[in-house]
Amino acid sequence: DGGITQSPKYLFRKEGQNVTLSCEQNLNHDAMYWYRQDPGQGLRLIYYSQIVNDFQKGDIAEGYSVSREKKESFPLTVTSAQKNPTAFYLCAVGVRSGYTFGSGTRLTVV
Amino acid sequence: AQTVTQSQPEMSVQEAETVTLSCTYDTSENNYYLFWYKQPPSRQMILVIRQEAYKQQNATENRFSVNFQKAAKSFSLKISDSQLGDTAMYFCAFMKPAASGTYKYIFGTGTRLKVLA
Q1: Residues B3, B117: Cα–Cα separation, whole Å
Q2: CB contact under 8 A, B104 and A58
Q3: Which residue in chain B has the smallest CA separation from A39?
């Protein structure tokens, strides 16, 4: 089935650690997006990529990094510079008709 | 900058009744799209309905319909014959296509809907 796979479903990070969230798609879409969801704040754009080897910062990119080496993959790294990383992270692919989202990764700092 | 406002943080409705969720937005653009997304307890985001701003006719998808008032910048969602499975967080979203072909959304803060048996 075509879709978006995010892994892991739950992730725990220790202070000072970098962690990487995986996002893989087989929908053959060019554009991929990472959003962060916090209670009461809706979804906020972290990074997006329109094409392989190119990506742009969103509204809250500080403390995050991404890569786009393959069309199918758009991993997000939460670095130690992100001071409040506990949140729900959603990956999406998008065309004019709407986004398709992955099932999300819940990241918790321990 | 565009903004999206959902003024009802929580709502409840009896099963089989009708409920309307409100959404207002602010933009100076003329060509844009509006969406309603549903996020059930599983947290999987699901597209409910979309509306192109250039279309005057309100979009409808089965029990879900919108009331799109472009001049008033209002985009409400009506759920008819509410079902227990409609219990979810509902997000209103605004999207203006960019020349580069990217589709960045502005999301509202959501309305938590509970359908009561």
Answers
A1: 35
A2: yes
A3: B109
